[in-house]
Amino acid sequence: MSEALAPAGFPPGPPLGLAGWLVLPGGIQYGRLSFRGTIEAVDALPEPLETGPRRYILPGFIDTHVHGGGGGDTMDGAAGVQTLARLHARCGTTSLLPTTMTNPWDRVLAALRGVRDVMRLQAEQRAQGQAPSAAQVLGAHLEGPFISPGRLGAQPPCTLEPTPELVQEVLALDCVRAVTLAPEVPGVPAAAHTLAGAGVRIGVGHTRADGPATAAFLEALAPLGRLAATHLFNAMGGIEGRQPGPAGALLAHPAVFPEVIFDLQHVHPLSLQLARAACPDRVMLITDAMRAAGLGDGESELGGQGVTVRGGRATLADGTLAGSVLTMDQALRNAVAAGVPLHEASRMASAHPARSLGLTDRGELRGGQRADLVVLDETLQVLSVYIGGQQLAPVPLAPISP
């Protein structure tokens, strides 16, 4: 593999190697990876004779919908983005999209600028050869304010209609990779066309649209770019035989990548099985994590609203689910416990999110891919993480104030 393909700043020298149970797209095989900044070889090895603890090697997780963690939140700006990216990297996430909340427009733009600043800082650090201490920030997920005021979920009541001027302000920042829209909001169809044309993934969510309206919206956008279902089954109508609702339309469309918050609070295991059956090559695990992720039970905050975390369940004062405290390694463990084979759960956490964003350089263990790796023990707990071929630097987490 040409050294020129390695991510900038990777130290010179012989390739690194990891041996263990490789979680490949088609199954699990004992073998060895050789890598620098990218994977240079994937070699099968005879299965070991000893029956000691297994070590699994997977592609690093890609979280396309994460608000916060470790005390930081995307809405805090650059410091919050850095904090959440450090927390989630320790849990196996190697790439992510920090996600905004519906807030006053100036605060949304400030948050997007914070994401852009961290992207630039990380690029400089890679060029200087610094060992990574956080997941790579690929861009922002703009969740709101272009959503239905009747399907806010835990979003604050600051919705807006997407005028051409607002859409151009978003695009001018050159950092938004995904957006959540409600099809029925005035101005959304035109805004979706403009955003999709600029390469932004369009997600349907926080919507009161019915099934036929959602299906028509998807059909109009399908030729233009990539489509997603924002936290499928949540903040949208349910599925009935005569009223398929937006969830039914999203599951039925062959190009939609459904996001699933599989924390066992937001989505029932049977609903996950339904999504797998309908979209076997497209279901994505996400965290939708808030700033309290990684901090245990207690009081926290989401978009200026008080949140209580008890037993892994985050709620507003009125009992509304308020995002999650999930991490991607726990989402993977939950999926496997629900009957999803490990190699399929791995695709849901890596390959499918990569494809949803049009990324071809990560998400699988094969030659030429970025060496974004997570090593798990036999109970699927994280042992080590590699980002661009470099092992994650152990940086203590220091929660920041909201």
From TrEMBL:
Lineage: Bacteria, Thermotogati, Deinococcota, Deinococci, Deinococcales
Residues engaged in binding substrate: 154, 234-235, 242, 266, 321-323
Keyword Metal-binding assigned: yes
InterPro entries: Amidohydro-rel, GlcNAc_6-P_deAcase, Metal-dep_hydrolase_composite, Metal_Hydrolase
Obligatory cofactor(s): a divalent metal cation
Organism annotation: Deinococcus proteolyticus (strain ATCC 35074 / DSM 20540 / JCM 6276 / NBRC 101906 / NCIMB 13154 / VKM Ac-1939 / CCM 2703 / MRP)
Co-factor binding details: Binds 1 divalent metal cation per subunit.
Enzyme Commission no: 3.5.1.25
Any GO molecular function: metal ion binding
Domain of life: Bacteria
The keyword Metal-binding appears for this protein: yes
UniProtKB keywords: Carbohydrate metabolism, Hydrolase, Metal-binding, Plasmid
Coiled-coil intervals: none
NCBIfam families referenced in this protein's UniProt entry, alphabetically: nagA
EC class: hydrolase
GO biological process, one term: N-acetylglucosamine catabolic process
Active site (UniProt): 288 (proton donor/acceptor)
Domain Amidohydrolase-related: 56-390
List of residues binding Zn(2+): 143, 206, 231
Record protein name field: N-acetylglucosamine-6-phosphate deacetylase
Gene3D superfamilies recorded: Metal-dependent hydrolases, Urease, subunit C, domain 1
Family under the similarity heading: Belongs to the metallo-dependent hydrolases superfamily. NagA family.
